[in-house]
Amino acid sequence: MMSLVFAGIALAAVLMATFVGHMRVAILSLWVAGLSVGAVYLTLGAEFLAIVQWIVSTLVTISFLFFAVMFGEYHPPESKRSNKTLFVQAISLVLGCIFAILLGLVSYQLPSAPQTDFADGSDLKMVGRLLTQSNLLSLEVLALTLFLVLVGGGVVARSEGGESQ
Amino acid sequence: MMIVAGLIGGLGLVCMISRKTLLGLLIGVQLLIIGSTMAFVLAGLHSGLRIQGHIFGLFITLGGIAQLVVGYSLSIRLFFLKQRISLDDLQALKQ
Questions:
Q1: I want to staple B32 with a disulfide (CB 3.0 to 4.6 A). Which of A21, A76, A106, B12 is the partner?
Q2: How many CB atoms lie within 10 A of CB B89?
Q3: Do the chains contact at A89 and B65, CB–CB below 8 Å?
Q4: What is the pLDDT of residues A48-59, one digit of tens each?
Q5: Do residues A71 and A10 share a domain?
Q6: Are A103 and B80 an interchain contact pair (Cβ–Cβ within 8 Å)?
């Protein structure tokens, strides 16, 4: 029951993040959506993933706010929307609905009753065991990817060669 | 609940297509990642492979950080080159 409440909050926040004009409100709505999804994970027995989701959502929100301030995306919403903009929004809305319907149709192939017996140990213990025993190579690849992205991001974001020089 | 995950991902797709700023695009990608993570967790819960769903969700969430860093780097580079950030100017990075 609580998971449905948090899912409703997440859905409302996602709607605001998608359609609201002010970028600051959209970023804060994204934060609320991330926190609500983390709360859904908590009610479903995924404590470790909930904590990761909360941390990632908070850091992403902070970085988005810094990004918006630095590069001046705090512009007011457009007062008048053109027909092309409305057409693109309508098409994208149809695509989004098709995506949701397809995912809902796929979910009908799953067993209806979710697993609620968590007697196989705590989530953190099981996740750690599975990561180190069965998914160690995947974890290493992910760590290497994040390291390369960190170094590559610093190289790509260099300041040489701009029009100011 | 899986419908909610699909709606979150679908609205992320809507946000990616309809927003005109790079930050709006990144917000849409984040929503798409949140929806797909939720779908994997729920699928694992329903199919009896609960922890495997959590592992998939963990990898997707952490992979989302990588795409976010790449998006930031490209936008900062674009700002150095063009003194502004616009989605239409991203093609200038190919030169």
A1: B12
A2: 15
A3: no
A4: 888 889 999 999
A5: yes
A6: no
